[in-house]
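Question (not urgent): is this output format expected?
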Amino acid sequence: MSDLTIFAPLSGWVTPLAQVPDPVFAEKMLGDGIAIDPVNDALCAPCDAVVLTVHEAGHAVTLRSTEGFELICHIGIDTVSLGGKGLTPQVQAGAKVLAGQPLIRFDLDHLVQNAPAVVTPIIVADATRYGVEPIAQGLVAIGDPLLRVVPLAVQAAEAQEDGEALVQETVVALSHGLHARPAARLVEAVRRHEAKVTLFHGDRNASALSAVGLLGLGLSHGTTVRIEATGAQAAAAMGDVIAFLGDATPEETPVDAPEPARAEGPGLGGVPAAPGLAVGPIHRLTRAAIPVETLAGSTEEETAKLTDALTRVREGLVQAAAAGGARGGVMAAHGAMLADPTLTEAALAAIGRGLSAGVAWQEAIAEQVAVLVSSGDRRIAERADDLRDLERHVLAALAGLPIEGPSVPVGAILVAEDLLPSQVAALDAGTVAGIALVKGGPTSHAAILAAGMGLPMAVAFGDPLVTLEDGRVIVLDADRGLIDPEPDQDAQSQVRDTIARRKAEMEAARAAQGPCRTLDGTRIEMFANLGSVGDAEAAVKEGAEGCGLLRTEFLFLERATAPTREEQARDYQAIADALGDRPMIVRLLDVGGDKPAPYMDLPVEENPALGLRGIRVALADPQLLEDQVGAILSVRQPCRIMAPMVASLSELEAVRAVVERQGGKAEVGVMIETPAAAISADILARKADFFSIGTNDLTQYTLAMDRGNAAVAAGVDGLHPAVLRLISATCDGAGRHDTPVGVCGSLAADRLAVPILLGLGVTELSVPPARVAAIKALVGKLDLARCRAAAMQALALPSAAAVRAHITKMLQEIGA
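Got this back:
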């Protein structure tokens, strides 16, 4: 029997078996092997094999390779308790599979939030017959060599069949049946005896010393099994087997699953994603599965199918992008991703290995999703949703099915497990009352689109939201991330009155020509975050007084070469013209290891969130910085220049030197996004003309929580007192040098954050265009003295949820 190379069935981080948080695997009770902490969403075949079993819970599969080795692949730890939720087998017992073919697809977010661990053991079942040699470490991709299996010149001794066979039947009382972990423990129990034990179920039987064989019996809770035992200690072995199978004690969970932080209050608690209130009946969206042909024709036939599908999807994206607006922007981004040759080449290579066009496309998408999720930065990880969107569009084209946006009744609250960006972009903001998701993240592309459309949205409600039936009238408080599942008529009327009042106040603020001021007359600049001419036009209509953040990445990404100084100048001028004489703050290019541009020679970094990004990239490429500054200075209207990700005074001084060298007189400011910048704000203020706080990154770095990681994303709230204290430190440091402070992160558009920001000393807010009128109306109802008192109290509270409850009460008292 020859050696066998086992290939990585997942993308992720290689983990020694001894570090798996379950003694069954760590102590090699099932066999020897290795584990992978996954970053993708599919378990693939690690070699050419026959599927022996697929557990009814969908979490584990056993295989027999073409060389005769038996393998166990077990997704996560104690995932059997999920009852199949988040796990979708792609094969059945008896199927022949090729290396790299998907076996089980899984929802990684759901597993991370609901299972003790997602680390996935890959086990060679009989360690007495085979030696296992790991040949990989660190990060692996699907198909990378993982293990080498070497047959050993050792034969396992068979127990003597002395005496008559003992036969007895019993009922399996194990709560989740005989899955991998109890099977391993049963093998250990039988191995202590000098006996041969065989279990029978239906027309199948298995030795009690074979974990794989036991799994193949499919013994679920309540199943009757016949046991035969022979040998000198047959009676003792029989007794142990019956006692083990008849133990109904709940199985011990090896490690504690993390519980994400959620909103506190009555009803269902989730996480705020896009502010607002909504009341209406639930309309549940279920994403229909798209059939995928797994039987492959010839390489030429499958290639032609995929090429035709890609062409049709590409044409549809071009048409959708031409319509402009939020949906147009998303579709344009999808078109750029579809044009990436990496995807097509990977799919064609998979077809060359004998896979069908649909399976090959799924594999290519899974590989790229794994790369994005493992990037270490949430902004890259979030693009995985866009890839999954493309996956569905191409699979639909292969199946000849249309992809349509969600159809939602007027006034309904859309409830779904999760939403893809194109699904949100296709919604009519005038029809849908709000969005509530079982999963999702507060900074996903779907959430960002909802906020830009003015749609209230809260996410991460978990299984309690699943239990609410269609048509039930609920109240969604997306400001706090709460759902009242049983609002009485008075509660519904109060919410509708509040929504109507806020709408009227927004209309009044939109129509008002005067500057934004608090109730006591304090001047607060109301700016908008922009990324295009269309954004600028929308902001002006909403009453924005200027641009507090112009994202210049739109000029640099999704293209093969860097934009020239002339190209940049033309686009900046067009946006400035749309703003008229209103001020414009231009953020210097914010790319790097986390947002790579294909033409930039940037290193691959282990942790791009802490690597070469923001102003560090610009300073490492002097010509790029010179060209961008020159283009900004050429705009006819005066512009302010803002440096991103500054952590030291020397970085600010380097930018100012470039401005002075080009003869410009533009103001130069700093984007406060790191704790270092916030704490040393008094030092930076010596040379900065202004500050603008990027609360999204500041929150992530302060709390050491990656918003792209589902296990912790629910706890990433900018109203955490630690973040508020850094904002306070920034305002205090700036105040020593009369440096104005603005906020351009998501907190500026959060109505519960605005009173605190003003109370801490912020004098400029920059929000998405759709939020300008609402925030301007809110500011007009706030008294600065009361805001200062509320802010000081918030700094002393223990959690973000407590802060939100505190400010909610304050706003209710003033009728805001």
